[in-house]
Design a protein that fits this description.
Number of helices: 6
Low-confidence stretches: 70-80
Mean pLDDT: 84
Structural class: mainly alpha
Order of helices and strands: HEHHHHHEE
Number of strands: 3
Helix content: 55-70%
Strand content: 5-15%
Distance between the termini: 22 Å
């Protein structure tokens, strides 16, 4: 699935893993992200743009004598319109991953470096979500019946980097 997302208990991803645990008796659940993920890159770009916009607004507010009522109503309307767009909502749902990743890279890191870190962060979030959203998966992991591992598939080399 796009962006390796696992945001709610309903749906094919969690249900598929539950099925494999209960009926196929799988012993390993591998959450596998990949380099160059378009969804993660889009979320990283959106996060960086939002962060830059917020920094600019904060600077303007700090230097403005009239900070009361200076809210940007046009951007609020645009944001409301975007909320109706499923793709935009999907990208926004991945922005916290980019935010977390931005704190793990060196200051001044490129958007590509942040996105690469975000792929790894997202794998970890997805691994955790599986156990948070599913009692079946959580209990199987806690009892040792399954192991949940994460990795990143390198699209250029074909190798997998397993994550701790």
């Amino acid at each position: 699935n796009a962006g390796n997302t696992c945001t709610h208990a309903e749906g094919s991803m969690v249900g598929s893993v539950e099925y494999s645990v209960l009926h196929l008796k799988t012993k390993l659940v591998l959450v596998l992200g990949h380099t160059g993920c378009g969804a993660i890159m889009a979320a990283t770009k959106a996060f960086m743009e939002q962060a830059a916009t917020e920094q600019l607004a904060a600077r303007r507010k700090a230097t403005s004598e009239d900070s009361e009522g200076s809210g940007d109503k046009a951007s609020t309307v645009a944001s409301d319109a975007e909320a109706d767009d499923k793709l935009t909502g999907f990208i926004k749902s991945l922005m916290p991953v980019a935010a977390d990743a931005s704190e793990t890279v060196k200051r001044g890191a490129s958007i590509e470096e942040i996105a690469a870190a975000a792929v790894k962060v997202n794998v970890g979030h997805t691994m955790k979500s599986l156990t948070v959203l599913s009692k079946v998966i959580r209990e199987a992991a806690e009892s040792g019946d399954i192991e949940i591992r994460g990795g990143v598939y390198n699209m250029q080399t074909g190798s997998v980097e397993f994550l701790d």
